[in-house]
Amino acid sequence: MGKWIQVTTDDERRRYNELLVGSYPAYESANLKGLNRLLGERGGRAFLYAESETGDSSFHILLLMTPDPIENGVWKIVNAVPTGEFEPVEAATITYKKIRDLMDEWGVQSWYGTPQKDYGHSGINQYFAVVPDLFWELTSIEEATNDRFRYTFYRSPERRGEDEDFKGPGATGLDVGPSTGKA
């Protein structure tokens, strides 16, 4: 089992940014200045998952969330990105369990993300495709623009702790296969 760390130091921020820039073409223009703005001025929080305790791994997950600048109490998932060699269902389960834990810890009931429709890489496309089947909190999927979806999640306080084994509708029998490396 891997380990999540909160990205707080300059070195951790540089590592996060390097992994993001090197992950998929959609993130090639990401930069440290933008990450620092989201973590500082915008009050965001970033986390890095690695399979090993040392952080050296062929599989990472990059997670960055910020409070929505308009809607109080709502958070935006800026990045929820698996990199390297990963299995989409496993990576989504690890990612969204962490998001659930953080939202419960912070007392946040609603969050959203706007993944692209096509990252030019089958593994990450499959990763986002399995989300609707795994998570009962997903309340809507709408097309925000021509190239993105908007996933909206609501976590009722009455349902916390329920369905934590990720056995949502259609979650069993998903056969999306493994993903490898950079696009």
Please summarize what this structure is:
The chain is 28% helix and 27% strand.
Kindly describe this structure:
With 183 residues, this protein is of the alpha+beta class. The chain has a single domain, classed as Aminopeptidase, CATH 3.40.630. It is built from four helices and seven strands. Strands 1-2-3-4-5-7-6 form a seven-stranded mixed β-sheet, with helices on both faces. α3 packs across α4. The chain is globular. The C terminus is likely disordered.
How far apart, in Å, are the first and last alpha carbons? 26 Å
Identify low-pLDDT runs. 165-183
What is CATH's topology name? Aminopeptidase
- Beta content comes to 25-35%
What letter string, H or E per element, gives the SSE order?
Answer: EHHEEEHEHEE
Mean pLDDT: 79
Radius of gyration: 16 Å
Q: Tell me the CATH superfamily.
A: Gcn5-related N-acetyltransferase (GNAT)
Structural class: alpha+beta
Q: Mind describing the biggest β-sheet?
A: 7 strands, mixed
| Total number of helices | 4
Fraction of residues in H or I helices: 25-40%
Strand order across the largest sheet:
1-2-3-4-5-7-6
CATH arch. level architecture: 3-Layer(aba) Sandwich
| Structural shape | globular
Work out the oligomeric state of the chains in this entry: single chain
CATH class descriptor? Alpha Beta
Count of discrete domains: 1
* Count of beta strands: 7
